[in-house]
Amino acid sequence: AQEKKIFVVQGPYPIIRRQLRARGWVEKKLPSVGRQLEQHRSDQNKLRLEIGTSNGGGGQGKALLNPHGGAEPFLETTDPLHYPEEEKHCDEDPSGIHKLMSYLVRDQPPNFIWTNFLEATDRQLLQQDHVVNHYARVDAFTTKEGLCLSLQNLPWIEQADPNTFFPRCYRLGSVNELEAFIEDFRLTAARSLLKLALEEAGDGPMGTKKVLNFAKGAGESHDSCPMHSTAQPGSPLYPELVEEALEVCKQHLGVLQHHDIDRRTPSPCRTCINWDRFLQDYYRVAHEGAKLVLTRQQRRQCQNLLQHLAEQLPQLGMEGKLNVWILKPGAESQGRGKAEGNREHTEAPHLAGVPPSLCSPGIICTTRLEEVLQLTRGCTTVQVGRWVVQKYVEKLLTIFGTKFDIRQWFLVTDWKPLTVWFYQDCYLRFCSRPFSLCHLERARHLCNVSVQKWYKSSPDQDPHVPPDKIWSHKQFQEYLAQVGQADAWQQVLVPGMKAAILNALRSAQDQVCFRKGNFELYGADFLVGEDCQPWLLEINSCPSMSPSSAVTRQLCANVQRDTLRLVLDRKDDPTCSIGAFELIYKE
């Protein structure tokens, strides 16, 4: 039985099929109707979004495979289902030998299964020697909602602070977390007002790193372009507004420093301030161009207070001063909610007074607390309990004035002991329009290929941005060297990404249901701050292997080849090459 080599592949994985055949494995073919039905991906994903089904391996899906024979079509998948030319070649069988071999093993169970979802396999029928490329219940870290909840528990598991690598995040379906978000939004507005006041006075906050953002283009500041003002230019907001912000921040600092233990200071967001009025005034300053009047004493107080807050708040620098937040469907990935053609927003019905942009499925950026609260009260296109709201990284590194993120692969081959392999090759994904915090459409802010493929590059895009919007990590390293940050990749970014991945895995380790012999390849997405610190956004349990560029065509093929080396070849030859994989953790 150990010599039997029968495999099943479900989904667009021609490289896996070709690599296994080259090793002498025989493919057990699935019914061809399965692939045709996969074309309904969009409708199925929309349905899953509406009913709140998780894509992380925790739900009950319809089985695709019975390992002992038989198959049913399975509709759910997150991969873009355009099949590249190499899959056609891989399916070509001029001599008919593959078809014949597949027929001969039609009643035999496969002992290697590579599929889009674990739910595609009847786990109860798996035998001990069967190998599957997924674990169960990984939605604890592969959905936005699950990752948000798991990392909240990290300080109880490890001596690590998620606020140092994961933008603070709240589940809107939880009453306690909704209240915590409202308080966070208000406190962030107060801190932001102090930053804006200092900026207007010709000074910047002390105690925060100032790093040049390279190659912005035309010297444009990404976060200092207020919208057309509805306020009168000659009617500044007087020192009382700054005084209120100072008082709130002083109280908050006291809470952070535990000075409130004896005197039981109530939350600074619930004392002596009319928050509705304060936020409206803050919006006028941050987004409508209203001016502040700042006394010399207030200027010194702002500087000192922000310096002390920076010592307590790891995200004070990256959070910026415009209080931008990002709303995400908690169980989705790949920036769900596509725009049609080159339009900036997907149109949707206007429901219960909620702006259409907030009713569209997918990720939404906002600067107004009222919009988030409207969503929790009135939007019915998605269960509100499945939404998370997360602080947007305003102070991020851009390249040629354009936002990008990093797709970083890693592989888990065991959960007890936890064994993690980091892939040393990764790639960057660019947006199709210049970065600006004054324009919050998806083309500028969501780097996912599944989002950006719906947009053409805008005329004001820097011509140095690659047409296919993809860079290899080697190109990024060359760029960093050109702008005087040659050591940032090895000394800051790579260690930061490794630490974030390990912390996320350890925070969810007890919730994962695993079986020996299985493995899973994941894709983590990171933003890069102005100081080159990586910020973890999400982890995908089924990273797309459909190439969208010359870079990803090569890298996706490599990571699939190296995965098979690691999980198959290494069993027989512990000294065999595992390509770009590096063991970074084993308990």
Automatic annotation (TrEMBL):
Q: Using the UniProt annotation, give all residue ranges assigned to the region (Disordered).
A: 36-71
Keyword Transport attributed: no
Spell out the SUPFAM superfamilies in the cross-references: Glutathione synthetase ATP-binding domain-like
Q: Which residues cross the membrane?
A: none
Subcellular location(s) per record: Cytoplasm, Cytoskeleton, Flagellum axoneme
Offer a single GO CC term for the protein.
microtubule cytoskeleton
Basic and acidic residues compositional bias: what residue ranges? Answer: 37-49
| InterPro entries, per the entry | ATP_grasp_subdomain_1 (IPR013815), TTL/TTLL_fam (IPR004344), TTLL_monoglycylase (IPR051437)
The protein in question is named TTLL3 monoglycylase
Gene name linked to the record = Ttll3_1
